[in-house]
Every structure is written in structure tokens, then in C-alpha cells.
Amino acid sequence: MLTRMSHSEAIVRVEPIVEAFTTGNPIQGPIPSFLVVGDELKSIYEHFKEVHRGAETGNHTMVAERNSLRPPFNQVFIDIMDFVELASRKDPTLPYRAGCEYFWHKKATPVRTVAVGKNIPVLTVSNLNERGAVLGKMKGVGKAKSIEMQYTYGDPTVEANWAHLAVQPTAGKMITRNLEPGRNCSLRGRAVATAGVSPWSNYVTLIIT
């Protein structure tokens, strides 16, 4: 599917994967040496994104460079997703921790909804002093291995508006960055456990500072 996406869509869809493999190790075990992760993965992603911006201005040199970079760019993420798919046979929640949720939804792979606490998780969110950063806290996630957060600047009652934001290995709270200051933003979260994922929490809407 990645190879059929436009350059712009590919950049958007793999961003959660970059974040998951840059901020931590969603595999929670040894990472094979053939996978590109961490700072190297982020560098490849940021470079391709910058070249794409230049190509969008009509710069022919940038267009040629972008087109030459796209195949190896695809392969880096295909390798990651192939490994995640293999490992998910024993851990069905791994695709969500690894930022691959969009691709798994398109494959219609079911993930169990399980109870990780006594009730549906309850989310509270507050702005931090850092520009574009918020602190989210969730209650009712006692059995969770991690928390997944989603956000939308649109109507939070429309399911299609929600997009992946981040995964935090430590259950209970999460600091998320790079939100757009001055905009109304809605956030929600759910717990990720070994057996599956919890229902989504309530959503919280606030103006990002």
C-alpha cells in the first residue's frame, strides 16, 4: 500500500512509525540489525520531507532527487512493517505501539478490546509551559503496557477526523509535543495491553498554548 501512496500521503502515514521508533522501542526486545530505527530513521524521514517540500515548488532538481529517494524511503518502512507483522503474531497490540495503526486498519486486522481497569479509561489534559505541548493523564489503565493518544483539530464526534499522535510506554501519563498553538484540539487515549486495547477514553478539547 505504501508504494501506491502519493509522496505527501506517505509522509503523513509513516510519521507515527518514525515517532514510535525514535522515542522508544515499541518492540520491547532486541531490534534486528537490518531495521533502520532511532536517529537514522528520523534523519531519512526529515530529509525526504524537506526534499519533497522543495519539489512542490517546481524545483526540477528537487523533483529528481525526491523521485530517486522514494524507493529506498519506501523500503525502510516496508522492512519495519514486515517485521512488525511477523512479531504481531505473538503480540497483536504491537502494530499499534509501532505506529502502524493506519496500515493495519486498512488490512482489517481485528484487535481485541479488553478491560485493563475497572472502567473505561478517563483522560484529563492540560497545557504545559512549553509551546505546543500538553500533559495527558489517564486513570483506569492498571494492566496497560502503554498508552496510545489520538488528536483532531476537527469535529471530535466524527471518527474519521481522529489521527495518531503518540504512544507512551509508561502507562498513566504522557507528554505530547508539536501540536499547533492557538488551535482548538481534541485528544483521547486508550490503554494497550498484551491481550488487546481498551475502549477509547472520553475526549478532551482545549486551546493549545
From TrEMBL:
Q: What is this protein called?
A: Uncharacterized protein
Q: What is the lineage of its organism?
A: Bacteria, Pseudomonadati, Thermodesulfobacteriota, Desulfuromonadia, Geobacterales
